[in-house]
């Protein structure tokens, strides 16, 4: 037998296991009851549906859709619906649990859920996506509801799909129910401030964390991976607060200017250039992944999951990582980051600005009232700042990193609610 190349050490983790490994550490630190542990480790409800759709060429194609409600003990469950070929029930389960912890960390009265349809929206026409969205909504009409389970956009979906979902649900109910979904277009009851909400929360978390590690915004440098919704808003708002953003990246690579990038110009360039920074001139162009290894004070991964792993974590030089993306750091890399003394503002805290303003959207819909952008921003900034302070205090109390502290806070809140409500 010839030489067999050893398999590379892969750090791409099963998302459910990755979530559970953090959950387990926090549950141990908290001394969580075994009974409550057993309740929380599995989702409350998971539904898989089959969706036969007439395609534009007249053929019928069958899609598979999932909705997982991890917990609704704190209130109606909340979580996005993802359209992607990589959707699996395991991933949806992990993301649903993540939403439970995220809502609990920022102390909004929601449980956690997630949905997904295995499909490639880029290869489908608007009509096909509309029929798929309406079929999914009809099949999930018993699960969804403004007091039961409230979907939102996620990867591959946006305001357009949320409008179809709201319309289909409203037809089934025989009345307009805009509070059944968030992330809607403004005219249908969407909230001002929602577009920038996640990036804004990243900015608030970054400034709070900088204060704790002794970084002064006007003297700090920052690199941001991903220049989509979250990354570009975080870049813009951090720049406005004096932070020098010296690098941003997208799928076309990373763009570095040691004197600080002109973020408004980058955004304008991207908007005029099919959504990409490709060809942007007022910066040096380096390979995309190298943005993670720049000598900056603050690193904001705001692109995708599992970008900081055991394979590359040693090369990270930042003093502070603020997780704009969901799951950008693999669970196995956590230990090395902690050894290196890097502070991490974790995803379930740092990117919770989006779900916070989604909550405001639901509140406004239920009140039949519209808030100004100023009111939305002021209230979400307060929620994000308070959440950071609570997580920081918990990290000192338990002598654990911020990520585990965030899980401790969240699990403790959910566990206490179970204890009070009882009824098993
Ligand atoms: P988006 O699609 O608007 O932008 C993603 C950006 O990342 C794009 O610029 C893309 O080119 C870039 N990108 C993708 N792969 C990359 C790579 N390998 N290297 C460098 N850049 C890469 O998405 P978004 O809404 O900004 O979401 C980004 C992350 O934030 C995701 O993990 C998402 O789950 C998370 N998140 C988003 C929100 C929200 O409100 N949009 C809320 C919470 C969490």
UniProtKB/TrEMBL annotation:
<protein>
    <recommendedName>
        <fullName>Glutamate dehydrogenase</fullName>
    </recommendedName>
</protein>
<dbReference type="InterPro" id="IPR046346">
    <property type="entry name" value="Aminoacid_DH-like_N_sf"/>
</dbReference>
<dbReference type="InterPro" id="IPR033524">
    <property type="entry name" value="Glu/Leu/Phe/Val_DH_AS"/>
</dbReference>
<keyword id="KW-0547">Nucleotide-binding</keyword>
<dbReference type="GO" id="GO:0006538">
    <property type="term" value="P:L-glutamate catabolic process"/>
</dbReference>
<dbReference type="InterPro" id="IPR006096">
    <property type="entry name" value="Glu/Leu/Phe/Val/Trp_DH_C"/>
</dbReference>
<feature type="domain" description="Glutamate/phenylalanine/leucine/valine/L-tryptophan dehydrogenase C-terminal">
    <location>
        <begin position="191"/>
        <end position="422"/>
    </location>
</feature>
<dbReference type="InterPro" id="IPR036291">
    <property type="entry name" value="NAD(P)-bd_dom_sf"/>
</dbReference>
<feature type="binding site">
    <location>
        <position position="358"/>
    </location>
    <ligand>
        <name>substrate</name>
    </ligand>
</feature>
<dbReference type="Pfam" id="PF00208">
    <property type="entry name" value="ELFV_dehydrog"/>
</dbReference>
<comment type="similarity">
    <text>Belongs to the Glu/Leu/Phe/Val dehydrogenases family.</text>
</comment>
<dbReference type="InterPro" id="IPR006097">
    <property type="entry name" value="Glu/Leu/Phe/Val/Trp_DH_dimer"/>
</dbReference>
<dbReference type="GO" id="GO:0000166">
    <property type="term" value="F:nucleotide binding"/>
</dbReference>
<feature type="binding site">
    <location>
        <position position="102"/>
    </location>
    <ligand>
        <name>substrate</name>
    </ligand>
</feature>
<dbReference type="InterPro" id="IPR006095">
    <property type="entry name" value="Glu/Leu/Phe/Val/Trp_DH"/>
</dbReference>
<dbReference type="InterPro" id="IPR033922">
    <property type="entry name" value="NAD_bind_Glu_DH"/>
</dbReference>
<feature type="site" description="Important for catalysis">
    <location>
        <position position="154"/>
    </location>
</feature>
<feature type="binding site">
    <location>
        <position position="198"/>
    </location>
    <ligand>
        <name>NAD(+)</name>
    </ligand>
</feature>
<dbReference type="InterPro" id="IPR014362">
    <property type="entry name" value="Glu_DH"/>
</dbReference>
<keyword id="KW-0560">Oxidoreductase</keyword>
<feature type="binding site">
    <location>
        <position position="78"/>
    </location>
    <ligand>
        <name>substrate</name>
    </ligand>
</feature>
<dbReference type="GO" id="GO:0004352">
    <property type="term" value="F:glutamate dehydrogenase (NAD+) activity"/>
</dbReference>
<keyword id="KW-0520">NAD</keyword>
<feature type="binding site">
    <location>
        <position position="229"/>
    </location>
    <ligand>
        <name>NAD(+)</name>
    </ligand>
</feature>
<dbReference type="Pfam" id="PF02812">
    <property type="entry name" value="ELFV_dehydrog_N"/>
</dbReference>
<feature type="active site" description="Proton donor">
    <location>
        <position position="114"/>
    </location>
</feature>
């Amino acid at each position: 037998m010839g030489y067999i190349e050893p398999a590379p050490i892969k750090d791409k983790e099963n998302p459910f296991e990755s979530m559970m490994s953090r959950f387990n550490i926090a549950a141990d630190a908290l001394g969580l009851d075994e009974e409550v542990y057993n309740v929380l480790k599995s989702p409350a409800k998971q539904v898989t549906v089959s969706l036969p759709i007439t395609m534009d060429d007249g053929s019928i194609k069958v899609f598979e859709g999932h909705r997982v409600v991890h917990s609704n003990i704190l209130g109606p469950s909340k979580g996005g619906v993802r359209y992607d070929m990589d959707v699996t029930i395991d991933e949806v389960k992990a993301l649903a649990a993540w939403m439970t912890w995220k809502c609990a960390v920022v102390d909004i009265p929601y449980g956690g859920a997630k949905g997904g349809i295995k499909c490639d929206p880029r290869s489908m026409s608007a009509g096909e996506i509309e029929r798929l969205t309406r079929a999914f909504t009809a099949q999930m009409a018993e699960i969804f509801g403004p007091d039961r389970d409230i979907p939102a956009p996620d990867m591959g979906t946006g305001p357009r799909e949320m409008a179809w979902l709201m319309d289909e649900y409203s037809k089934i109910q025989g009345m307009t129910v805009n509070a059944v979904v968030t992330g809607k277009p403004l005219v249908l009851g969407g909230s001002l401030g929602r577009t920038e909400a996640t990036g804004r929360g990243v900015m608030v978390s970054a400034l709070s964390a900088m204060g704790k590690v002794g970084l002064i915004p006007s003297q700090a440098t920052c690199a941001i991976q991903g220049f989509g919704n979250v990354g570009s808003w975080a870049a813009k708002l951090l720049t406005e607060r004096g932070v020098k953003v010296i690098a941003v990246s997208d799928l076309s690579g990373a763009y570095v200017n040691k004197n600080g990038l002109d973020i408004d110009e980058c955004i304008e360039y991207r908007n005029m250039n099919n959504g990409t920074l490709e060809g942007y001139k007022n910066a040096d162009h380096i390979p995309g992944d190298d943005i993670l290894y720049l000598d900056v004070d603050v690193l904001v991964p705001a692109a995708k999951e599992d970008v900081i792993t055991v394979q590359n974590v040693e090369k990270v030089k930042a003093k502070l990582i603020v997780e704009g993306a969901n799951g950008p750091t693999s669970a196995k890399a956590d230990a090395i980051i902690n050894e290196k003394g890097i502070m991490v503002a974790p995803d379930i805290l740092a990117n919770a600005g989006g779900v916070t303003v989604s909550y405001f959207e639901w509140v406004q819909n239920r009140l039949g009232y519209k808030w100004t952008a100023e009111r939305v921003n002021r209230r979400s900034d307060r929620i994000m700042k308070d959440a950071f302070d609570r997580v920081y205090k918990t990290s000192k109390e338990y002598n654990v990193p911020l990520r585990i502290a965030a899980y401790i806070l969240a699990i403790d809140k959910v566990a206490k609610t179970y204890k009070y409500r009882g009824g098993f």
